[in-house]
Design a protein that fits this description.
Length: 190
């Protein structure tokens, strides 16, 4: 909010900052601080567990029979050598960009109130950059402590914004389902 702050360093309450007299407390301050702290924590991680991706495709035949295919890309571990907060990419800026030992990249978003927009998802997909998103519940006051926030982040399961193998896998499954549907129709005609 750019308003001046005062450091409150009393002996009763936890040390904190508050707005200077005459300035109204901003509504976005806690979110901004929480968001910034989460990004800094994640940028220091040297590994992260990536969630599995489930891809499901199904079609219904003319007689009502459902033909489906399902594949799960298993969870994986991403090893990071370094992390950068708000590293600009072409057309978007991820909250954190982790760099792997062999040049691999993982973009990470932190959601406190706003999930990644559809437009940003499309820009990420265009560049085929793997991206996950962590969600933080702002209502939990313990998340304002760095150690508690890191524990919550490590215990949470991020969601995929873009997995580079998902689109190709979906196309393959769609082709398999279409082929199975045509085979079923041919068998019914015969």
């Amino acid at each position: 909010c750019r308003a001046p702050l005062i450091a409150r360093q009393g002996s009763i309450r936890r040390w904190h900052f508050s707005h200077a007299p005459g300035f109204v407390a901003c509504e976005t301050g806690p979110e901004t601080a929480l968001h910034r702290m989460a990004k800094q924590i994640i940028a220091q991680w040297n590994e992260i567990t990536l969630p599995p991706v489930e891809v499901r495709v199904s079609l219904r035949s003319a007689n009502g029979q459902i033909i489906a295919r399902h594949v799960t890309i298993p969870e994986a571990r991403f090893v990071a050598e370094r992390g950068v907060v708000e590293a600009p990419r072409e057309g978007f800026v991820p909250d954190v960009l982790l760099h792997g030992p062999e040049g691999e990249l993982l973009a990470i978003e932190v959601c406190v109130t706003h999930k990644v927009s559809r437009a940003k998802q499309q820009r990420v997909a265009k560049h085929a950059l793997p991206m996950i998103q962590f969600s933080i519940d702002r209502a939990d006051d313990s998340t304002y402590e760095a150690a508690a926030l890191e524990q919550r982040l490590r215990e949470s399961t991020p969601e995929w914004i873009f997995h580079p193998q998902e689109a190709a896998l979906r196309l393959r499954l769609e082709a398999e389902v279409e082929a199975a549907l045509h085979q079923l129709q041919d068998e019914q005609i015969a």
